[in-house]
Specification:
The protein has 215 residues and is an alpha/beta fold. It is built from nine helices and six strands. Helix 1 crosses helix 2, helix 5 runs antiparallel to helix 8 and helix 7 packs across helix 8. The chain starts with a strand and ends in a 6-residue tail after the last helix.
Amino acid sequence: MAELLVIRHGQASFGQDDYDVLSELGHRQAEVAGALLKELNWVPDRRVTGTLTRQRDTLKSMGFADADEHSGFNEYDFGDLLNARFKGDVPPLSTGDRKAHFRILRETVFEWQDAAVDGASETYIEFCERVEAARKFATDTDAKRVLVVSSGGVIGQMTASALGADKRHMMNLNLQIKNTAMTRFMFSGASFSLHEFNATPHFMSYAGSKLVSYS
């Protein structure tokens, strides 16, 4: 069996004009995640990211380079979903207050899953299809250790799919995933199964606990 280790990107720029930029904390989270893998001698045979800056920069700060890219590992566009749901009149709390942000995120994704958000650039079914295409791309290899840097929604969808869970479970998982958390799958041919979800061994110390973030 081969391993697919999917890591969520480091903390991005929540509440800023451009979310797709790692914060100083995000770079530090990536550094300690990469340091742990190297300490464990877990060296990937193949590296893959989405095309988002925060994903590529997380891999770089982990100390790895020369990755393949697949846009299927990109996050769903929450800003686009908000604009479609609220017809451009987005509630101000959704971009500034964390509690309100995550409540509206959950509600919006549930409506999106139910095909109740008109005008979004991507349907939920299309999202699921591209995530599955990205998973197949990453695992269509002779490599035994594949490292992917992706985003929370994608990881939630991959995990829910591997478990055969319903669509709501995708979002419940999505909201749990910490920045640079590690989710591990095992694969061989058509076989694909979850081995470990949302693990952060690189934060399991008093100093490391101060690096934990969710957005």
